[in-house]
Amino acid sequence: MRSTAIILVYAVSIFLVFFVALTQMDVRFDLVFYAMVLGQFLVGVMVYMVLKDNYKTDKTFDHWYEDHPNEIE
Fold first, then answer.
1. What is the pTM of this model?
2. Which of 18, 30, 42, 63 has the most other CB atoms within 10 Å of its CB?
């Protein structure tokens, strides 16, 4: 997921923050509505791209979490 998928995740996240700011300002309803429709489409494309991304890792569930090792004391 570190290739184009993560760039798309950042772009969609920035757009959605922009959309939330747009809803709090006094903007015409039709602009907010079309931005909402575009945001829903972008989220769908983002989910599809992340799921179809050709990302491979050598980690398994035996590695646990990288920031919290699975050590029994």
1. 0.69
2. 42
